[in-house]
Design a protein that fits this description.
564 residues, alpha/beta, 8-stranded parallel β-sheet, 5-stranded antiparallel β-sheet, 16 helices, 27% helix, binds 1-deoxynojirimycin
Length: 564
């Protein structure tokens, strides 16, 4: 049986606002992106996922859509999307678009109509609820449930004109669509078929496991993986892509391995893969993402292994350290802006790309970009970090601690402009960039790395090439070694050759620390060929005398064949 194409793919994510600006307005756009496709192709990624470019008031940088079938003038036009699709297809690459259908913008005509009166034909397209019995809309505590929004504060916004509340799991300018209404679902399906007819090759579904919600009469309930979620997703699959082979990935906060098996079991006809968040929570304290804790690699490995094993026989994993909502992995898990920045970025990439699943590379990750040194919360743009810091300051949190937390965790770290070269604004724009350019852009940029065999970029190229060359990277069984080691991430991948055939095996070992370490590795690998290595203290690339001796941030992959 042939593999679905996305199992051997590597996806590159572009946040169009921050990738490349073609018209000097300081905001990236689609023509800018088209002009930079060589970079993505040279890296070796074969799928491009573009964050939203649709018309939007930009309350959440485009994740608040006011027209699903257009392009915001900030980013270009529908012609530019057509040109992007054609340019990708000419290169043998594919386009995945971002589908935000848990909610719309409050400026979407559907919502404008819905809020116009209690009897509007689209009233039931959103979640309108009266205040709690005996209470008046707008009074503290009158909200229909006590749910807290992902961006802080209650999930309910009172509407003075009609005396009811509408639900918004994110910002109040992002009202939630009511998927219980079949007309809403039919409108979503029709819109997605329109995009397929335009030539897109896949969809990334924003927070899709929130579309089925459970409300109880007493104001309790939940909104993760609600009672009809699988029914809605199966219907979406049937109605939109049927037997066509796309790449579909559902962003699913709070999803468990068991739920993910249901979502990604091909026999059920839902998604190809999901984005889970468990590994993103390893360095969060009880207070959530701004409660910053050092990463505990023992715990991280435990989480990653559970997902590897849980989706080994059924379903498929997506693999990521970063996206537009996360800080930069080289700062978060790596050595940050120090002498070991590049070695740490390479080691982290080696570990991730050798897991089983489809890897996602977020723009700039392939350069080892690092977090931005914000000096004031006023410099932040992101609605989530702004709301959080405002609330934290109001609670009396020390301003220095607030700044430290956003400097570790703000979504803006991923959103500062892509670093192209050492010219003004790192070649991102000729105008004034909408977010500051990282001050180290003269040192960290694409022009300096592309073509340099020692660069982080070249390391990503090698990892991607290895995936293309060796079926064991795609299909091999995953087995963790040294589960309790605090900083060495080691595992094997094995592809059985069948009776009389040799097994293909990889041993992946990375020291995720700035100190040398010595570990006990299984025997029989001394003679195995090194297929990828980085951070080796010996520049000649010769393996050290003893396999288990690892330099700071050193990582390597060895390959051997063993008789089956
Ligand atoms: C998840 C997206 O990745 C994030 O950027 C956005 O703010 C929320 N969903 C709401 O759409």
């Amino acid at each position: 049986m042939t593999q679905p194409w996305w199992r051997t793919s590597v996806v590159y994510q572009v946040y169009p606002r921050s990738f490349a600006d073609s018209n000097g307005d300081g905001i990236g756009d689609l023509p800018g992106l088209i002009g930079r496709l060589d970079h993505i192709q040279a890296l070796g990624a074969d799928v491009l996922w573009v964050s939203p470019f649709y018309p939007s008031p930009q309350a959440d940088n485009g994740y608040d859509i006011s027209d699903y079938q257009g392009v915001d003038p900030l980013f270009g036009s529908l012609d530019d999307v057509d040109r992007l699709i054609a340019a990708l297809h000419e290169r043998g690459m594919k386009l995945v678009i971002d589908v935000v259908v848990n909610h719309t913008s409050d400026a979407h005509p559907w919502f404008v109509e819905s809020r116009s009166s209690r009897t509007s034909a689209k009233r039931d397209w959103y979640w309108w609820r009266p205040p709690r019995p005996g209470r008046v809309a707008g009074e503290p505590g009158a909200e229909p449930t006590s749910w807290t929004s992902f961006f802080g504060g209650p999930t309910w916004e009172p509407d003075e004109a009609t005396g009811e509340y509408y639900l918004h799991l994110f910002d109040r300018r992002q009202p939630d669509l009511n998927w219980e209404n079949p007309d809403v679902r039919a409108a979503v399906h029709a819109m997605l078929r329109w995009w397929l007819d335009r030539g897109v090759d896949g969809f990334r579904f924003d927070v899709i496991n929130l579309v089925s919600k459970q409300f109880n009469a007493d104001g309790t309930g939940w909104f993760f993986n609600g009672p009809r979620i699988h029914e809605f997703v199966t219907e979406l699959h049937e109605q939109v892509w049927g037997t066509r082979q796309l790449l579909t990935v559902g962003e699913c906060p709070g999803v468990t391995v068991e739920e993910a098996r249901r979502f990604t079991d091909p026999a059920r006809g839902e998604f190809d893969m999901v984005f889970q968040f468990e590994h993103m929570g390893v360095d969060h304290g009880m207070g959530g993402r701004y409660d910053v804790r050092p990463v505990d690699w023992v715990r991280m490995k435990e989480v990653m292994v559970r997902w590897q094993e849980g989706l080994a026989d059924v379903g498929w994993n997506s693999l990521y350290w970063c996206n537009h909502d996360q800080p930069r992995p080289a700062s978060r898990y790596g050595a940050g802006h120090t002498a070991y920045r590049e070695a740490s970025a390479k080691a982290l990439a080696t570990v991730l790309h050798l897991h089983r699943g489809t890897p996602y590379v977020y723009q700039g990750e392939e350069l080892g970009m690092v977090n931005h040194p914000f000096t004031s919360v006023e410099q932040l743009d992101d609605v989530e970090s702004r709301n959080w810091s405002r609330a934290a300051l109001a609670r009396g949190m020390d301003p220095a601690a607030v700044l430290a937390a956003v400097n570790a965790r703000s979504r803006d770290h991923a959103r500062t402009p892509m670093l192209w070269d050492d010219s003004a604004h790192a070649g991102f724009t000729t105008g004034t960039p909408w977010l500051p350019v990282h001050p180290a852009y003269r040192q960290i940029n694409a022009a300096a790395q592309v073509g340099d065999p020692d660069s982080v970029f070249a390391h990503y190229q090698r990892l991607i090439r290895l995936r293309r060359e060796l079926p064991v990277v795609v299909d091999g069984r995953f087995e963790l070694l040294l589960p309790k080691h605090p900083c060495v991430y080691a595992f094997t991948r094995t592809l059985s050759g069948g009776p009389g055939q040799a097994d293909d095996e990889l041993l992946v070992v990375a020291n995720l620390s700035g100190e040398p370490v010595e570990v006990e590795l299984p025997g029989g690998w001394e003679e195995a060929r090194v297929v990828i290595s980085s951070g080796d203290p010996d520049p000649s690339g010769m393996p050290p005398a003893h396999l288990g001796v690892l330099g700071p941030w050193q990582a390597w992959v060895r390959r051997r064949h063993t008789d089956g």
